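One thing: can you check what follows?
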Amino acid sequence: MARTSGAERIPAAVASSLGDCACFNARSAARAITDLYDQTLAASGLRATQFAILAAIHLQAGGAMQTVASELGLDPSTMTRVLRPLEEGGLVTVETGAGGRAKQVELTSLGRKKLAEAHRLWEKAQERLREKLGDRVFERVVKDLGAVQRALAK
């Protein structure tokens, strides 16, 4: 059995501190919440992330891909990658804008229909989470997560 040097030993406080770790708890909560939304949205064929992208495009009334990406906190290369299946599914169009540089993204008529369908399911997901957390915790979580995001935004 190999022995570890004192420098390689992990202090008990570090090993047991995940419960107090903001990052670990945020990621665990995000996975659980995303799973709930994904399960509820499954009937629409969309995942929670895809719903958010379609909603952001709708809220921006189409427009520059970079603006939509910024609204979602995504870099342009990630936005291009996540848009690909939506474009292949006929839900969005991505066109090169005037001057050949800025890409424009818009919902197709199928994309608008899919967003409307998914929105009804999203409302159910919101209600399911609210029921599980209770009104007070749900409202506080939404408010506090928004505050965290704004405080850490670049």
In short: The beta strands are 63-64, 92-96, 103-107. Residues 47-152 form a domain with the Arc Repressor Mutant, subunit A fold (CATH 1.10.10.10). The first strand starts at residue 63 and ends at 64.
